[in-house]
Amino acid sequence: MMLRRLRAALTRKYVTLDGPYSGRLVGEGDPSAISVDGEPGRGAVLALHGFAGTPNEVRTVTDAATRLHLMARAPRLAGHGSDARELMNVGWTDWVKTATDALFDLQERAGTRVVVAGLSLGALLAAHLAAVHPERVAGLIAMSNAVWLRYPSPGLGLAFCDLIKPFGNEFYLPKSGADIRDPHVKKRHLTYDVNPARSAVQVLRAGRLVRAELSAVKCPALVIHGRLDRVCPIGNADRFARALGTTDVEIAVMPRSGHIVSVDLDRAAVAARVQEFLERVTGAGVRP
After folding, report:
1. CA distance 159 to 240
2. pLDDT-derived band of residue 21, with 50, 70 and 90 as boundaries?
3. Beta pairing partners, 116
């Protein structure tokens, strides 16, 4: 009875897809997967976007790969179509399959080990790939890693959603836009106007799983985090780096940025750090 009352109290704050909420992508840009041909044998990069996002969030990484003549891919994760309804019933195992399939395909095409990069949920996936497929991964870039979520929001809310799952969590969490401090970029950012509760809980669970895997990551790593991140605490950068099984770790804190650090006010600094790391790990250089 108590859990039923808790569910009722919680869902009054959440929404169904009617009225002002459509569940569709809002913002500007092309949500399609990104593919960069590069030069064979020169190196490769796999970039993974965040929960309820699109490959646009990791274009900073694929653009750096383009400048370095590296092969790159940024797939759309499972369930990330044009409507949030498609995302409701997918989770960690589905996203891992998308990421793993992309890694294997890219490595075979490139003929080299791959640098894996990701933002938020994408950072969890990238770290998982580095831990379980070390023979295929040359380096790791983790931006705004979601190994821990900020409390009380969104961490506590998602923990409650997880608690009430026997009584149904097929509802949506309204969004007022992405956590981006640049107002012009925030307005254009492509994402859903709601988050499906059931799949959002999967991000919370995935953080716990990946925490246990970080010590198996032995490759060079770059950890980037926005100091003003409202979704994943800034302490994640240091805790994530210390938990890795490698001493070759760089931490870059972006002082003016929120959660979507790759497109926020410090995006030029993020792009520079990403390119420097890719050049070092792959041995690629910018040609005249």
Report:
1. 21
2. confident
3. 46, 140
Our measurement of the distance from residue 10's CA atom to the centroid of its chain's CA atoms, rounded to an integer in Å, reads: 26
Q: To the nearest 10°, the Cα dihedral for 141, 232, 177, 126?
A: 30
Helix axes 155-163, 197-211, angle to 10 degrees: 110
Between 92-110 and 121-132, two packed helices, what is the crossing angle to 10 degrees? 60
CA torsion 229-118-121-262 (nearest 10°) is 30
Please give the model's pTM, rounded to 2 decimal places.
0.90
Per residue in 251-287, pLDDT (tens digit) is: 999 999 999 999 999 999 999 999 999 999 998 765 5
Q: 199-223: b or e for each residue (b if 16 or more CB lie within 10 Å)?
A: bbbbbbebbeebbebbeebbbbbbb
pLDDT band at 198 (very low <50, low <70, confident <90, very high): confident
- β-sheet bridge partners, residue 118: 48, 142
Which residues neighbour 7 within 8 Å (Cβ) at sequence distance 6 or greater? Answer: 164, 167, 168
DSSP per-residue letters across 210-223: HHTTGGG--S-EEE
